[in-house]
């Protein structure tokens, strides 16, 4: 596996804003989409191209298009939806394969509760999106599910990754490339990434309970 921590100044700046505990839901949401788009730019840098000819304004011109596999974007519900529009702003024609996985906050075990995949998964490059890679349980469960559906090429984009989550993916699925805005220090005793972002789903959807 390879993991790439993207050093682009725009990503570093936007992630810094997201880490502020008082950042509004509106801003947090917008920043997640924006970093989602910037990570997409990096994660698609090596896609193969093929040439073809068109009639331009002054005659025939050779242009290029992305060759090979079609892309399906795979948001891990619910928090992955928070990056989806950003990703689709750069790959507007991509099919979306939604996978519902929730982490049991007591046991930290991932539970899959829904899947609605695009057809012909075996002929697609799957781009998984989720803001948080913590223990890695949710990501590993999603990759397991995609492979069962026939997927052979899988990449993952996460806003923040813990070393434990990276190691878990590497052990279970060593060929999957991970693109992240930050490799953070680790996990706290509740399995939350430190310094992390807190509960990304709650911050994106505005569902954080005031007394928790
Ligand atoms: O690496 P892990 O230890 O599995 O933790 C990471 C997962 O936890 C969060 O989702 P959560 O289960 O809170 O669901 P939500 O998106 O519905 O909030 C996050 O969005 C990841 O999917
Ligand atoms: O830090 C974490 C870990 C799991 N899920 C989150 O939303 N944040
Ligand atoms: Mg959550």
TrEMBL record:
Keywords: Allosteric enzyme, Glycosyltransferase, GTP-binding, Magnesium, Nucleotide-binding, Transferase. InterPro entries: PRTase-like (IPR029057), PRTase_dom (IPR000836), Upp_B (IPR034332), UPRT (IPR005765), UPRTase/APRTase (IPR050054). Uracil binds at residues 193, 198-200. The keyword Cell membrane does not apply. Transmembrane segments: none annotated. Its cofactor is Mg(2+). Allosterically activated by GTP. Pathway: Pyrimidine metabolism; UMP biosynthesis via salvage pathway; UMP from uracil: step 1/1. It catalyses: UMP + diphosphate = 5-phospho-alpha-D-ribose 1-diphosphate + uracil. One of its GO terms (molecular function) is uracil phosphoribosyltransferase activity. The keyword Secreted does not apply. Residues 6-207 form the Phosphoribosyltransferase domain. Binds 1 Mg(2+) ion per subunit. The magnesium is bound as Mg-PRPP. 5-phospho-alpha-D-ribose 1-diphosphate binds at residues 78, 103, 130-138, 199. Its EC number is 2.4.2.9. HAMAP family: Upp_B. Catalyzes the conversion of uracil and 5-phospho-alpha-D-ribose 1-diphosphate (PRPP) to UMP and diphosphate. Belongs to the UPRTase family. This is Uracil phosphoribosyltransferase. It comes from Thiopseudomonas acetoxidans.
């Amino acid at each position: 596996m390879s993991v790439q921590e993207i050093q682009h100044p725009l990503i570093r700046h936007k992630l810094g804003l997201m880490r502020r505990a008082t950042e509004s839901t509106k801003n947090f949401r917008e920043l997640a989409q924006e970093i989602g788009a910037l990570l997409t730019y990096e994660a698609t840098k090596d896609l193969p191209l093929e040439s073809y000819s068109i009639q331009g304004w002054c005659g025939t011109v050779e242009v290029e298009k992305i060759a090979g596999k079609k892309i399906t974007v795979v948001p891990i519900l619910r928090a992955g939806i928070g990056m989806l529009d950003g990703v689709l702003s750069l790959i507007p024609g991509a099919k979306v394969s939604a996978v519902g996985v929730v982490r049991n906050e007591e046991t930290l075990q991932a539970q899959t509760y829904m899947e609605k995949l695009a057809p012909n998964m075996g002929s697609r490059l799957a781009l998984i999106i989720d803001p948080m890679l913590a223990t890695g349980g949710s990501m590993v469960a999603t990759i397991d599910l995609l492979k069962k559906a026939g997927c052979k090429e899988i990449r993952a984009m996460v806003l923040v990754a813990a070393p434990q989550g990276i190691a878990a993916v590497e052990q279970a699925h060593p060929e999957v490339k991970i693109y992240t805005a930050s490799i953070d220090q680790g996990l706290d005793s509740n399995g939350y990434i430190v310094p992390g972002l807190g509960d990304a789903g709650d911050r994106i959807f505005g569902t954080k309970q005031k007394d928790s």
